[in-house]
Amino acid sequence: MRQFLAVVVFTLLTIGFFAGYSNFGIPQIEPAPPPKEEKLDLASMTMDDFIALGERLFNGKGTCTLCHNALGRAPMLGTIAEDVPKRLKDPSYAGAAANIEEYLIESLIEPSVFVVPGFGKKGTNDSESPMPDVSGGSIGLSEAEVSAVVAYLQDSGGAEVTVEIPQEVDEEDDDADEGEAREAVSDPKELMALFTCDACHMIDGVGGDAGPNLSKIGASRDRAYLRRAILDPNAEIAKGYEADMMPPDMGEQIYVKELEILVDFLAGLK
Fold first, then answer.
1. Beta carbons within 8 Å of 47's beta carbon, 6+ residues apart
2. What is d(CA 131, CA 148) in angstroms, rounded to the nearest whole number?
3. Domain ranges, ordered by start, for the chain
């Protein structure tokens, strides 16, 4: 009987230890509140203010610098005054833009209308861009924010700034300012699309090649690695790739439930 009680006590202590460790020893992943959008007071903005807003969006919310950088994953944008007129005359250009401003807006919202040679998705013969529509998905720039980015690109690219500051923010933009929670996504492929993962990662021959191929990632990486790679992408850099290639704030954008769904999906790719 004494031995039985000893086993029971030991079992309870062991269970208590692991329960305590799981609750207090392992960092808990808490869902962050939706990031609050910058309140746009367009009425009081000067053009310099508007261009500065575009620069902040370009380097921040727009995640543009993840690809438009010295690593060469996307075209550099410092010479658009010279480059855009040539692209508009390119036989493969299929858009409707007539000037630099219209071309930039088109490129941000419909990036596959014209793909700069050598920068298309692998296997598409430069007919499809890996860049997402910045007005949707996890980026979700408003019309006013797109205009601000265009103003910044014109200014930094040596072109005349022709963008006009919008007179008012749409009601839809006001809703975004409140930082309301979006509805959680339960389908892993929808999650991949929402966060534009395929812009850099390939699965079964579909997607970009700026990041590691994920087709069989579950065969070589465990769930802990996958979770860490999403939440802290610079913690361990895959061989052959550079740091800062993934958004560092995925933990602020993805819900805990979505994170586990995505981890389950990736772990099953074997």
1. 151, 161, 165
2. 19
3. 42-177, 188-267
* 10 vs 82: which has the higher pLDDT: 82
* Res 36: pLDDT: 52
Q: What is the DSSP letter of 24?
A: I
Is-contact 138 34, C-beta < 8 A?
A: no
| Residue 79, token pair as written in the block | 């010479």
CA distance 163 to 101: 7
Q: DSSP state, 243?
A: T
For residue 159, what pLDDT is reported?
A: 94
User: Can you name the residues that pair with 203 across neighbouring β-strands?
Assistant: 206
Contacts of 196 (CB under 8 A, 6+ apart): 132, 137, 138, 139
Q: Which CATH number fits domain 188-267: 2.60.120.260, 1.10.760.10, 3.40.640.10, 3.30.9.100?
A: 1.10.760.10
**What are the residues whose beta carbons fall under 8 Å from the beta carbon of 212, sequence distance 6 or more?**
201, 238, 241
Distance CA 61, CA 43 (A): 22
Q: How far apart are CA 239 and CA 230, in angstroms?
A: 16
Q: Are 42-177 and 188-267 in the same CATH fold?
A: yes
Which residue has tokens 């060469």? 72
Distance between CA 237 and CA 53 in Å, rounded? 32
Residue whose structure tokens are 């039985």:
4
Beta strand 206-207 pairing with 202-203: antiparallel
CATH number of 42-177: 1.10.760
Q: pTM of the predicted model, to two decimals?
A: 0.66
Q: Residue 175 corresponds to which tokens in the numbers above?
A: 């809703």
Paired tokens of 73: 């994953």
